[in-house]
Design a protein that fits this description.
The complex is a heterodimer. Chain A is mainly α. Chain A has 11 helices and no strands. The mean pLDDT of chain A is about 90. By secondary structure, chain B is α/β, with parallel strands linked by helices. The chains are: A mainly alpha, B alpha/beta.
Chain lengths: ~250, ~325
């Protein structure tokens, strides 16, 4: 019997990613919550506030990466449960973690891709200088991984309807926007608010994007990266744990 | 040295909450066998297949596929099996070709082999001309064939087929049965779940009958049928059925039950010779005109109904309470 190597696992995960990209990127819920919703929210909260480009671009990019990356998992997995195509992965010679990794990569590419386009448009339109490209790239890339993993975690809800995953996910996503320094700067928040902000992954996304466009990050580069990495591990671990629990029940 | 069993289930059990869906079932399937798993709706067939394929985790018990434990060595066990579930769970947004290629990638089949095999399978299943069409446009029979082809793209040693012909037209049913036989002749072990008794009887080397989560019988179709001596029958049709004829036949001492089957009456008996003598006497005495008279052995359907109907209702309560 041929041993399944790490490289084999990556290839099989990638096959899932490519398949998800083909099938789910243009699905109405993905377009609605991945593109339209963040753009609409951005305009809702910024039009008429006369904010400078260095303040606007991090908000635009953070909104986009936050919503788009966390949408693909909650669209794809419930649909696959309904059509029972998710069972194909469970009966295939591939571990659950490899399946979830493949799905997470589909969300990551969707989120990172759309956010990159939005950010480039924002930078060109605002004639903004990128002062820290590493922070900007990590702000988009790492955040995209984190929010994609968050979407996969919520997609463990055993349902065949994407709406039944997206609604509870929105109960988390919408409040997070208001405690993460997106509309109210963290420095202006009361002490309790600042503690909550420090715990929110979105605060650290904005921190990195701020650094990228020349504004300061409240918690600093290292803390932003560290917090996002911790959240990534938490979402991945809890996500696969929940999926395993659901599998045992089914 | 004994040959490794294609499938070896030991004490497989599945609870859903307090409900016992599969109750400590054990069986073995030899390599190269077509093994039928027969049972009424809700008997536990699909739950068993889900446990054997790693989709569902057993509450208790183990299963080995070609010697690999489905829980401890799941990747190895899954590498040697192909699965056709009760519904054709193909990706309708993808073409037939893309479905096969994706499955090949998922099973780690190299590019050259998966492309060659996909081409062969699409030709074998008469889908090659439609290979680039999205499968959403396919008929139910065509989707079923794509689903079976996907199960065969890897080097499967064991093929699970869950109700493979359910809901298909006669032509598709025949072509799928023929294909299963051909695959089996090439050495593939087939595990077939069905509630179609005739399908199981015609295709399987051995049959397990499952009822209420337990194996009621495992044997060859012929031995199961012939073991049913208690359900022999005599079938009679009259030129004109007079009023009271059925009652006359019901009163015969050797007859246990009379069933109306179209224009015929079927007399269930333990002793068909004695029943024949008694019928002839009734015909003479009452001036009846028979147009056909046949003795019938037990059919697989009779055996199935007898085996699945024999358990008492109290069994359900017993199973629900057992875990408490």
């Amino acid at each position: 019997m041929t041993q399944v190597t790490f490289s084999d696992k990556i290839k099989r995960s990638w096959a899932i990613t490519v398949k998800d990209m083909k099938i789910y990127y243009l699905r109405p819920p993905a377009l609605m919550f991945g593109i339209l919703f963040p753009v609409a929210l951005f305009f809702t909260f910024t039009v008429g506030r006369n904010l400078s480009p260095d303040r606007l671009i991090p908000v635009l990019s953070a909104q986009t990466v936050f919503w788009s990356a966390s949408t693909i998992g909650p669209v794809a997995i419930p649909m696959e449960r309904r059509l029972r195509t998710f069972e194909r992965f469970l009966s295939a010679p591939i571990s659950l973690i490899s399946v979830l990794w493949g799905k997470m990569m589909a969300g990551f590419i969707f989120g990172a891709g759309i956010t990159t386009i939005a950010t480039v448009i924002g930078i060109l339109w605002g004639n903004q200088t990128v002062s820290d490209p590493v922070a900007l790239v990590l702000g988009i890339g790492l955040s995209s991984m984190v929010y994609s993993a968050m979407g996969i975690l919520f997609a463990s809800i055993p349902t065949g309807s994407p709406g039944e995953v997206i609604v509870p996910l929105n109960f988390v996503r919408i409040p997070l926007m208001f405690v993460s320094g997106m509309f109210i700067p963290v420095e202006s928040m009361p002490a309790a608010g600042q503690i909550v902000a420090a715990l929110s992954p979105l605060t650290h996304t904005i921190g990195l994007l701020n650094l990228g466009t020349g504004s300061p990050s409240v918690f600093g580069f290292a803390a932003n990266i560290g917090a996002l990495l911790v959240w990534l591990l938490v979402f991945l671990y809890v996500g696969q744990l929940f999926h395993k629990i659901i599998m045992r029940r089914e | 040295m004994t040959e490794i069993k294609a499938i070896e289930a030991k004490g497989l059990t599945k609870y859903y909450g307090d409900f016992l869906a599969v109750d400590h079932i054990s069986f073995e399937v030899e390599q190269g066998e077509i093994f039928g798993f027969l049972g009424p709706n809700g008997a536990g067939k699909s739950t068993t297949i889900r446990m054997l394929t790693g989709i569902s985790t057993p509450t208790e018990g183990t299963a080995k596929i070609m010697g690999f434990d489905i829980l401890k060595h799941s990747v190895e066990a899954k590498s040697v099996m192909g699965i056709v579930p009760d519904i054709s769970n193909i990706y309708t947004e993808l073409s037939a070709w893309e479905n096969l290629i994706f499955t090949g990638k998922l099973y780690g089949v190299s590019k050259d082999i998966r492309e060659k095999k996909a081409e062969e399978l699409l030709q074998l299943f008469d889908l090659y001309d439609r290979r680039d069409d999205k499968t959403v446009e396919f008929s139910r029979g065509m989707r079923r064939r794509v689903c079976i082809a996907m199960a065969l793209i890897s080097d499967s040693k064991v093929l699970y087929l869950d109700e493979p012909t359910s809901g298909l037209d006669v032509k598709s049913v025949r072509s799928i049965r023929k294909l299963i036989r051909e695959l089996n002749e090439d050495g593939l072990t087939v595990f077939l779940t069905t509630h179609n008794i005739e399908e199981a009887s015609q295709m399987c080397d051995r049959i397990a009958i499952i009822n209420r989560g337990r194996i009621a019988e495992i044997d060859t179709p012929e031995r199961i049928r012939t073991a049913m001596k208690s359900t022999q029958a005599v079938e009679i049709a009259f030129k004109e059925q007079k009023k009271g004829t059925r009652e006359l036949l019901e009163n015969l001492s050797s007859v246990t039950e009379v069933q109306k089957r179209g224009d015929k009456l079927r007399l269930i008996t333990n002793d068909s010779a004695q029943t024949l003598r008694q019928i002839l006497q009734v015909i003479d005495e009452n001036g009846l005109v028979p147009i056909s008279l046949n003795t019938l052995g037990a059919s697989m359907e009779d055996a199935f109904l007898w085996l699945t109907g024999a358990e008492m209702e109290s069994e359900i309560i017993h199973r629900r309470n057992r875990r408490k």
